[in-house]
Each structure stands twice: as structure tokens, then as C-alpha cells.
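Endonuclease/exonuclease/phosphatase family metal-dependent hydrolase
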Amino acid sequence: MADTLRIATFHTQLSRAGPGLLLRDILRGEDAQVAATVAVIAAAAADVVVLQDMDFDAGGAALTALADALAQAGIDYPHRLALRPNTGMPTGVDIDGDGRSWRARDAQGYGRFNGQGGMALLSRHPFGAVRDFSGFLWVDLPDSAAPAVLPPEALPVLRLATVAAWDVAVEVPGGPLHLLALHAGTPVFDGPEDRNGWRNADELRFWALYLEGWTPEGVPFAAEHFAVIGTFNVDPEGGEGRPEGLLALLEHPRLQDVVPRRPGGGTQTADWPEPEPGDLRVDYILPAAGMTVTGAGVLWPEGEEGPVAASVAALASDHRLVWVDLEMVGD
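Predicted C-alpha cells:
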């Protein structure tokens, strides 16, 4: 018997100016942006959703509070995952060359405090094995661009993942579905060396190599059901960024790009100022090539009618939630 599983990715704006402020805003129940975020996630009704740009706390209090708010909105996610991201984690090295080594751009991933703008998973199904590759050093990636764009003292320190990189098995009917989840860094805000552009490309290329049998540790990846999912922060046709990493995934023989679309037909997932950078496609779900996809879309409402209004989606985030329905064959 075949069951349909909906997976989604949503770059939220659940990040605040200091630690504990997101939890405060969720618990008070008065923050319009939090309420809009809850409305968007509830409207998507995904079985599993990967969230980007959500502040991390060691006890998972903010994620629990968000799940409680979603339960009140009618959608229950009993299984939650948030691991320590690289954002705001000090390196002790002057990464950006401004003569200081303690600022947000000198952290493992941009962040004004430890855990700002991390990544999280909410699921109706339990999690199985979790592999966290967030600590993998950039210089250790095969053919890494790091030696050409980093100061020498940063090479033994700087991690590849700007935010996080996880292989999470979700135990669903039909066997585990592996979510290869990431939030790659933006390929801008650097100098002529294009450090962030090269890092973004290598963050994406990491997963292409992983699908081909290379692994930073442990056994090679051999799952049948999987999807690369998250914010890639690069568009195949517009904006800035190096295309090499993105094309390594979009053209990978083990993946399929079903090109989720907005109700109006566009493929963009981020609502950014015109003319630069403009609306771009930067959030992706790339299922395994052998999986059957029964539906896909970008939750980008165009009017005020329907499950979620256009104004609500815009208030929630400048990104839009992306979803894909997969056919899972159960017993």
C-alpha cells in the first residue's frame, strides 16, 4: 500500500537580536511574526518540516514552544530535532581580515551569539540515526577551495557548514527516509577573493560527493529513499553565487529536481527587493531519482483568501515554504 508523505523546508525569520528573545516572543503569544510563521507551517500540513534561521538553545525550549503553538493551531509534531549549529561559534581567527577576531563574521557561521539562526526539524514520525557533519573542516573536503581563499591560520579551524549539515533518518511507513538537510551560507558579503561564494559552492558539493560514496567519517551513504533539502542560497539563473555547487546537485544522477512552483507559475522562493537581488529560487527539495513525486509547490499565496493570506506569508518571512509529496510504499 502506498502512503503519501509531505516534506517541507521553510527558511523562517525566527531569529532575534539576543539569546532567549525568541522563546520570550513565542511564549507571550503576542508576536505577529511568530503567529504568521505558525499559520504558514500549519497551512502546509507537512509530515516533516526542516526549519532554517531559528535560534538554537541547548534545552530546545524555543523549538518546544513553537511545537506547542503549532499544536494549538491543529498540527502536532511530537518529534523534534535541533543540534548545535555553527552560527555564532567563535573561531578565534580574523576570518574577514578587519584586524579583529571576535566579531560575527569571524564565527564559524555568521552570528552575533552562539546558536543565532540555527536549523531544526519537526516531524510527525520518529527519528532514527542522525549523522551531524557540522564539525567537518572546510579544508578537508576533496578539492576544497579553502586554501585559496582563507588566511592560513583559519585552515585548521574553519568548518565547511555555515549553519549545519545533517543526515537524519525519519522512520516513516515504507522504511527510513533520509533528509540530507543544510542551510548553506550566502555567497555575498565578502571581498574579491569570493570566500563566501566558494564556501557556498563547497557546502553544496559536499552532498554531491556524499551521494557518490565519499564520506567524512563512518560508512558510505547507501540509502534508497532520501532528499537533499534546505536553503542553498543560490539561484540557477539569477543573483550572485557560483553555479558549480548547485549544478552538482541539480544535475546529479541520484537526484531529481521537480521544480516546485508558485501558484502563478514562478519558481522563486524568496521575496527580495527589486531590481537587486530580486525574487530568487534559493530553497530546494531534491528527492532521490527513483522516488515517485505526486505533488510539489511553493506556498506563495497571491491574495488574502485561502488557508493563509499573502500578507501573512510576507510577514512570516521573506522566504516561502517549499513542499514535496512523496509516495512511500508501506506494508
